[in-house]
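User: Assemble these into one structure.

Assistant: Restating your components, then the assembled model:
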Amino acid sequence: MSNNVIKKEWRFNFDFSVASGETYGRFFKGLNDKKIIGNICNNRTFYPPKPFCDKTLKPPDAWLECDGAGIVEAFTICCEKSNGVKFSKTDKKPDVPYVLGVIKIKDSEHCIIHFISGFETKDVSEIADKIEIGMKVKPVWATKREGEILDIEYFEPVI
Amino acid sequence: MQDISYNKRFEYNWDVPFKVTLGESYFRFLDGLKNKKILGNICPKCNGLHVPARPFCDKCLVEITKWYETSGIVTIESFSVTYVKFLGLPDPPHITGIVRAENAVTSFLHQIGGIPYDEPKELDEKTKIGMKLKPVWAEKRIGDIQDILYFTPVDA
Amino acid sequence: MDRKVAVVGVGNTSYTSAKRETRERTEVSADCIKAGFDFVGKGLSMDDVDSIFYASVDAFEGVQRPDRSMDCLGQSLNKATFFVHTGGTAGGSAFKEAYHSVKSGLCDIVIALGASTTSATVEAQQILNSASPPLIEKPFGAGAIHMAGYYLMRYKADYNITAEDFAMVAAKSHKHAVNNPYAHIRKGFTVEEILASPMVCSPIHLYEICPVSAGATCVIMASEEKAKELSDTPVWIKAIDSISNTFLAGYRPFTSFYKLEILAKRVYEKAGIKNPLEDIDYAELFNPFAGFELLEYEALGFCDKGDAPKLVRDGITDYGGKLPCTLSGGTLCTNSGISASMSRHAETVLQLMGKVEGGRQVKNAKTGIAHSWGGNMGQFHTLCVLSV
């Protein structure tokens, strides 16, 4: 029966407001000041910091600070625009192609996901030639910073 | 203890559109409202009248295919008067209730209106369980449950 | 395999209003589980835990499948973690799933965590309304409080229940919450204050309605062998079950908590309870709207239909009475949406262990029950019988 294709539409529209807590709060404040904050949890080093040790669930033992230089552990070059993907509250969408990387800062046990850019070309194969796993990168800071993850505009290769 | 001076609030929003297929039974029910008709259907196995009409009887798990047009008169099973402003609800005082059409085996949720009052708090007493109500129709009907604006006392 | 399962530990965080919460979501849960480990002692840590059952609601957390976001559930330690979502009853359901995993012999030590912080929620009504049937009920903006209104208006009309009857049972919760260090609203509102508070949805006054709280509660369960190693006061799970209702509210009779009545019969039979008022020493009932406690007394067989207010007036269900109920202050005084349905179990366990703080400890409580209600405005109930 053709009638059963009749559609009904509605929306979910939810507003959220979440607390950062101390640990992520320190991290975001650090970004505002062009610093990467990390910590030591149960003798293990983490950039970004962890609010508690996975095993003991105890709070961190000490805070660390560095300039954010690290190495690329993995990456992917994104070549197609994706509708509906929001990159931040400003809904800034990077032009394709862009690179999303997995970056290990200093001796951290875990990594951070961020954009890798600064290749001075839009050609996918040229970008592919310029990026490799194990490559050293450092943060490029946004001029206007608000204490959020995009205070780092992207990581760029250290030449 | 946490040093809460570092705490920062982040705000964001989910705005997600949905679109579903109605299926035949719900389509016919909602389409009926467009024509000022409250349609039910009758289970071929237990003979239960379902209003609003639905695709299958949840007790017998059989398809319901026999249609029935009700008089539109419903009875209040229960109700609650809302006295404060709720997001997405009309201004208070505002009544929603559970109403039953004729001898249906199911009831449904709708708004109740047109009950006169001087003070809002009188509505608790003036609205009565067991009261008979009739539908007040929207001028422009689109095949939606809100094509009935609200139910109002039959003698109003 | 059929074996006994005990609760050996309980963890609670402080509860606050969602707007005042300053902890990040996962920190709240980590604090809660750590409190559970500390409660058990004996060096218990995540290494000893086989599985974690986490109860919450996506839209309360602002993240889809919020279990994934919880580092404190042992993801990095290769633990099996499960998300249990049956709306407001999720805490009771996670407790039940955790029990099954030990009862079946698959696990020895498990955690059930109720940690909907709701601290991400700006306007709870947006979320609650999204649980409504979209085609023919959602447009009316009805939420849990309207469902409660229908039950209580009907109860009032059918049994001549008065506004004071409702206020009295609310005052009982408020009085005890003052002495519960984990309760959120600890104002001790009196019957007069409750009746003078604004009417929100008839017949429910503001002080007869739960707050939106942020916080977490967990329980640690163990097999008989492990329970005896870990605890001198294990509390055994005698029987547990849950029951469903229709999705559409319009399909439900509002004349009583008849689903809970059916569930109670099922659970009592398994636990060997014949006369609830005699056989049960303590009950934690789910009362996000204070009047519910009255309907629950009747559904649970504590008294005949319409007689529940008498139990309150006679002090039968108060501290020192024959069957003290909800001395935590209940969901009325602390409701984080989800963990409130596990707090009922946690509180009953503490009563049976003899470890309740704040002068609310019932003497010689041996058998207790914990109830939860919720899921699309009361689609589900869970009921559990615990004993020493």
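Chain C has a mean pLDDT of 93.
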